[in-house]
Prior knowledge:
Layout: E1 61-66, H1 70-81, E2 86-90, H2 97-101, H3 104-118, H4 123-126, H5 138-162, E3 166-169, E4 171-176, E5 179-183, E6 190-200, E7 204-206, E8 219-221, E9 234-238, H6 242-253, E10 257-262, H7 273-285, E11 288-292, E12 296-301, E13 306-310, E14 315-318, E15 320-323, E16 327-329, H8 336-339, E17 362-364, H9 375-389, E18 403-405, E19 411-415, H10 418-423, E20 428-434, H11 439-444, E21 450-456, E22 462-468, H12 472-484, H13 489-494, H14 504-522
Parallel strand pairs: 1-2, 1-6, 2-3, 6-17, 8-15, 9-10, 9-15, 10-11
Antiparallel strand pairs: 4-5, 5-6, 7-16, 12-13, 13-14, 18-19, 19-22, 20-21, 21-22
Helix pairs in contact: 1-9, 3-5, 3-6
Flavin-adenine dinucleotide (FAD) binds near residues 202 and 373.
Amino acid sequence: MPTWPRRGTASPTSCTAAPAGPWRGPPRRRAAAGSPPRVRSRRHRRPVGCATLPGMSEYDYDLVVIGSGPGGQKAAIAGAKLGKRVAIVDKADMVGGVCVNTGTIPSKTLREAVMFLTGMSQRELYGADYRVKKDITISDLFARTQHVIGREVQVVRAQLHRNQVDLLTGTARFVDPHTVAVQGAHRGEHHTVSAEKVVIATGTRPARPPQVDFDEERVLDSDEVLALEEIPSSLVVVGAGVIGIEYASMFAALGSRVTVVEQRERMLEFCDPEIVESLKFHLRDQAVTFRFGEKVVDVKVSESGTVTTLASGKRIPAAAVMYSAGRQGSTEELNLAAAGLVADNRGRLSVDEHYRTPVEHIYAVGDVIGFPALAATSMDQGRLAAYHAFGESARELAALQPIGIYTIPEISYCGATEAELTSSAVPYEVGLARYRELARGQIIGDAYGMLKLLVSTVDRTLLGVHLFGTGATDLVHIGQAVMACGGTVDYLVDTVFNYPTLSEAYKVAALDVTNKIRALDRFGG
Length: 525
Ligand SMILES: Cc1cc2nc3c(=O)[nH]c(=O)nc-3n(C[C@H](O)[C@H](O)[C@H](O)COP(=O)(O)OP(=O)(O)OC[C@H]3O[C@@H](n4cnc5c(N)ncnc54)[C@H](O)[C@@H]3O)c2cc1C
Ligand SMILES: NC(=O)c1ccc[n+]([C@@H]2O[C@H](COP(=O)([O-])OP(=O)(O)OC[C@H]3O[C@@H](n4cnc5c(N)ncnc54)[C@H](O)[C@@H]3O)[C@@H](O)[C@H]2O)c1
């Protein structure tokens, strides 16, 4: 009697299991961590047409997760740790999600390759002409990204495998609210699985304006940049969001003449304006031109290059154009209507505080639910969704979350900005530390880095920390920890930091702000 797939239309071997090889067969029942080994249950083996016996699950899996990015992975593993039968679905070449394959990991690895090969972080010490490699090729850069992507995919597969999460390769679409059809890359690779709970973690894809002809060669979206065949001599970046500015700074470091076109009047509006000014100064120094308050209306491609036309009539010639003008939720392939769900006009799903969609047993996490659309938050959303689905108690995400922008130089912050404190009439004082005044700053040749602390003049609590320069995205966590514990600036004044380190910037900035607050007291404020 056939036992599997329950409602499938093809052999289950059309899906592959982690880490490689054919599907490992029907799902097993797992013991929760720490509990005695369980005798393998045959509950899933209910033959087609048989009535459900008491205690028998009517579904193939307790949880099916769609999308294997950070949100999906953590939802799947959290479910597995609770002893649930879990499957995760993604395309064979997208295991690890946008994060590993086209987004965070490749872009951050590319940045490291650029920083290393151009030798730019050492130029303060060895001179403006210092290079590790004179003629950097695209393969020098992408060899490193491919290596890291490969390793990261292995890590994801191994984690899923050791947690006994079945990896089903293909594109998922709803058949009904509890049933998902998985279509593999080849004809006949199609089958259907059902689950008590579903987590949608399908992320986003670059938004592509319909009037622009993307040719994957000269006119690219931000995912396709990783397939460039040569470093463009000149590049137009459309959209000065985080993606656009990160790539603009990498190509500028490689020597491309970059023009950034942004329809708003400012960029990175959520960051500290002083730090954004420092970044703009640095990028202009690298021959980046900014066109703020300008909208791209047309891009023409010829044999020799591209011409980008702006609404103002300006025309910009460049070897290539990269669009980074926002992203769109990846929901179009899901057949949401069959699940009773609708996406908004940007393909995103709405959820409640437990990441539950309006269909109660279907959750959505990660970029597909919109802001903040970061890898770190997506992971925690996935874990919390799985916990909620199976009644495991958990605390909500901490309100205080850091932002890291991997431009060259990098930016990071946590807590309030000066603008926010001013508009909500919170009295504060600023403490500054410049890397060039720190021994470590001199040793590493970072003359422009800075740390800015915002401190309440009422109770001396730390309200915000803003960093620019080497290690900013790591150093921010010191301030985050102090703020999360409700700490005051005095903690930083009294703490002994290793010397010489960049962390010492906290002490310098803390002393600076306490001196200012003391002056206020001294002058009778
Ligand atoms: C260029 C770039 C740089 C970034 N840099 C950073 C950074 O430095 N730090 C940071 O925190 N965040 C960064 N992000 C954002 C980060 O990558 C995302 O927040 C994160 O990847 C979102 O995770 P997710 O769980 O939503 O899934 P994603 O990583 O978006 O993956 C979704 C997966 O779902 C799959 N999928 C979609 N539809 C289906 C379907 N129907 N069936 C099966 N599978 C499907 C896709 O194939 C994909 O693999 C960056 C993003 C980009 C694009
Ligand atoms: N370091 C990080 O944490 C990191 C890095 C990269 C991406 N991300 C995530 O990815 C998400 C998407 O980033 P993004 O930069 O693509 O999107 P975004 O929406 O933040 O930025 C798009 C920008 O393009 C501009 N724009 C749109 N159409 C335009 C046009 N025709 N002409 C000129 N300008 C135009 C918009 O005004 C906007 O400023 C971010 O919200 C972020 O969460 C995070």
